[in-house]
Amino acid sequence: MSYILHIETSSSGCSAAVSDDDRLLGFKSIDTGLSHAAKITILIREVMQMSEIDFNQLSAVAVSRGPGSYTGLRIGVSAAKGICYALNIPLLSVVSLQIMAARVLVQYLKKNNMPAGFLCPMLDARRMEVYSAVYDSALAPVREIIAEVIDINSYSNWPAGERIYFFGPGAEKCRTIISHPSAVFLEGVTPLAQDMPVLVAPLFYKGQYEDTGYFEPYYLKDFIATIPRKNIIGHK
Fold first, then answer.
1. Over its length of 236 residues, how does the chain's per-residue pLDDT go in tens digits?
2. Looking at the domain assignment, is residue 228 inside a domain?
3. Which of 118, 132, 100, 120 lies closest to 199 in space, CA to CA?
4. Residue 15 forms beta bridges with which residues?
5. Are 121 and 149 part of one and the same domain?
6. Which of 24, 100, 141, 179 has the fewest CB atoms within 10 Å of its CB?
7. Is 119 in the same domain as 195?
């Protein structure tokens, strides 16, 4: 038995799960509106209790490394590293976009016998920009992770006969812009810790651990702080 704690904080949602290898034992999630710091510790404690697992029984901690919310990723990674240091156990990480792709592959395509196709998860990166990647039906990447601005020409060069599924918190705003004949948009897909075990278990058994001391989230873009309009001097 290898009990693994999974932490996902790359978007507005915050979730945690516990697995025995790739078998899910417990899962909790909440939409925090990006207030992850106030919720993540409570959520972790609750999912551990739900799974009836003590912290000293954990074999590893896995975290979503990004891309996504700068603040959310930083909080999730800090929590994961803190537990790893305290328990002297290894840290594992997976890409937030691949977590969503795993969910669509299992819970949408296979479960509902939907036609096979390429998977394009998207996370919102403000305005008309998204973080995205493309995976095949084995969850292998066929296009690297990028930050792309979506316009009427986006994916116009995608092969006409190749079905491609778009999904995730960044996909909805692209629905009326991407007009490729083989594009299919799926609703209700977000990065969740419950979909991490299938990706994490192989990493654990191959010993593909992160260097806990030096590990940093994958932000993809530099963080740019903005000042709310109500805080700008002279704004009414």
1. 899 999 999 998 899 999 999 999 999 999 866 567 778 999 999 999 999 999 999 999 999 999 999 999 999 999 999 999 999 999 999 999 999 999 999 999 999 999 999 999 999 998 899 999 999 999 999 999 999 999 999 999 999 999 999 999 999 999 999 999 999 999 999 999 999 999 999 999 999 999 999 999 999 876 444 444 444 444 44
2. no
3. 100
4. 8, 29
5. yes
6. 179
7. no
| Complete DSSP assignment for 1-63 | --EEEEEE-SSSEEEEEEEETTEEEEEEEEE-TT-GGGTHHHHHHHHHHHHT--GGGEEEEEE
Which pair of tokens denotes residue 33?
């509106």
Q: Which stretch of DSSP H or E encloses residue 123? A: strand 118-124
And the tokens for 9? 């904080």
Q: Which residues contact 159 (CB under 8 A, 6 or more apart)?
A: 182
Write out the two tokens for 130: 């998204």
CATH number at residue 149: 3.30.420.40
**The whole model's pTM is what?**
0.91
